[in-house]
Design goal:
The chain is an alpha+beta fold and 451 residues long. It contains 13 helices and 19 strands. It has three domains: 53 residues, no CATH class; 238 residues, no CATH class; 70 residues, no CATH class.
Length: 451
């Protein structure tokens, strides 16, 4: 990378094959104040990728964070399963349009169903199910999801919501109004050329409905726009970071998928550690006398003989098989000669030694996801965490997960609620259906609730 410094040693411009960066100056007072309130990002030293004048912020140091994160998830079984569990738990048994008619004496909502056929058809459609499943997938895997509002042919309403895969989108830097652009391209993380990408407006998080109305009024919804769904916990307000990231930084993710690879190699090569066969030189001289064989003939004969011995003694089909050999006794000194010696090698390695470490790594990853390992059947996770695998603990852990899912559920409902409002449908509340585990003394194993 080529860097241009000023006399004070401050980098002014940075340029490489496809990234251009600069140290930005101080904006006007009004713009600075807007940015401070609506988009408090650190603009002191920003690198970006220029796409036809749009300054795209790289996602990760090499602009390939989602690609690398997806690879790590795919290589780590407990992380992959834990994320899928969270996705399925958060989605519950789907959503339900309703109105809050009031509250009972216990403070619980009194809900009434929405009878409008347009709302019911939209909520029950595959379009909504597909949106929720895919956006929540990216939200949990990478820290943010995104959905495109697809305009109708007439352009006066929206025909549906289309989730945009995190692998193929990048955001620009945020302007003074808290909005930005999204470049969608199948060429990411490499820089796409002209004609290889789609440029879409991204709604401001401050008031996405107002921003959507402005775009619609200005006639800028020909290709629709993007509404992001971000997990704000990491304080990265542009891309966000997934909740499992600390487990990766601490090394638990790497440990979790290194141990299976190590055990696989160990078991595959264990036969080479088991026996030490000692054959005296005199044995070969008597079996294949040098006077009867040339050097090459003798080598070939010995090789063939040893191959046959190995085939007859090694492998599961030859377990417990005896070996017969002959040896001579020297009449002069009584010593045994030409005797084969087969000694077992002492193998101090035990594959089970790694299992507690593997279980601890699995537990730490699930803890990062805020998932009790026992919910997934890990009855003895690492020894230290044993003893809480009873049915009551599992039920309570499941209920805690449902309670903690509230903010994530609201985040993925926001685009659906905006779609309903932008299409002029009756306003309504959206609630999730849940299947809750109960004790058998209630007469059933489950009950359904709304949340």
């Amino acid at each position: 990378m080529n860097i241009l410094f000023n006399s004070s040693g401050i980098p002014l411009l940075m340029q490489s094959t496809y990234i251009f960066g600069e140290t930005t100056g101080t904006p006007q007072n009004e713009m600075k104040e807007r940015t401070r309130i609506l988009a408090p990002y650190n603009l002191s030293n920003v690198s970006y990728i220029d796409i036809d004048g749009v300054k795209i912020r790289p996602w990760g140091d090499e602009n390939d964070f989602p690609q690398k994160a997806a690879e790590e998830i795919g290589n780590t079984s407990v992380l992959n399963t834990g994320l899928k569990f969270l996705r399925n738990l958060t989605l519950g048994q789907g959503i339900y349009p309703c109105r809050v008619a009031g509250y009972d004496n216990g403070g619980n909502e009194m809900l009434k169903p929405v009878t409008d056929s347009r709302v019911q058809a939209f909520i029950a459609s595959r379009n909504v199910r597909r949106y929720m499943e895919k956006v929540l997938r990216d939200y949990l895997k990478f820290g943010n999801g995104a959905v495109q509002f697809v305009p109708s042919a007439a352009g006066n309403s929206f025909a549906g919501v289309n989730p945009v895969n995190a692998l193929y989108r990048r955001y620009s830097e945020v302007d003074e109004y808290g909005a930005c652009k999204c470049i969608v391209s199948g060429y990411w993380p490499q820089r796409p050329d002209k004609g290889q990408y789609t440029r879409l407006d991204v709604l401001s998080e401050y008031d996405p409905q107002m921003h959507a109305e402005v775009l619609k009024f200005a006639g800028k919804v020909k290709d629709g726009f993007i509404m992001p769904v971000r997990d704000s916990w990491s304080n990265d307000d542009l891309y966000g970071m997934p909740i499992w990231w600390p487990a990766y930084v601490c090394g638990w993710v790497e440990i979790a998928h290194l141990i299976p690879h190590f055990l696989k190699k160990a078991y595959k090569n264990q036969i080479t550690w088991k026996w030490h066969v000692q054959i005296p030189y005199s044995y070969w001289e008597k079996k294949y006398p040098s006077k009867d064989y040339s050097a090459k003939e003798r080598e070939a004969a010995i090789q063939k003989y040893m191959d046959s011995v190995e085939q007859n003694l090694c492998g599961p089909d030859n377990a417990e098989k005896p070996i017969f050999s002959h040896y001579a006794v020297n009449e002069m000194n009584g010593r045994i000669e030409e005797e084969w010696k087969i000694k077992p090698l002492e193998n101090k390695y035990q594959g089970s030694d790694n299992l507690p470490v593997s279980a601890a790594a699995n537990s730490e990853i699930l803890f990062a996801l805020m998932v009790n390992p026992n919910v997934l059947g890990a009855g003895m996770p690492g020894g230290t965490y044993a003893g809480n695998q009873g049915g009551s603990n599992i039920r309570e852990a499941f209920l805690v997960n449902i309670a903690n899912a509230w903010i994530d559920r609201q985040n993925i409902l926001d685009p659906i609620e905006l779609y309903i409002k932008m299409n002029g449908m009756p306003e309504c509340e959206l609630r999730f259906r849940n299947t809750v585990l109960v004790t058998l003394d209630t007469g059933s194993g489950t009950k359904k609730t709304l949340s």
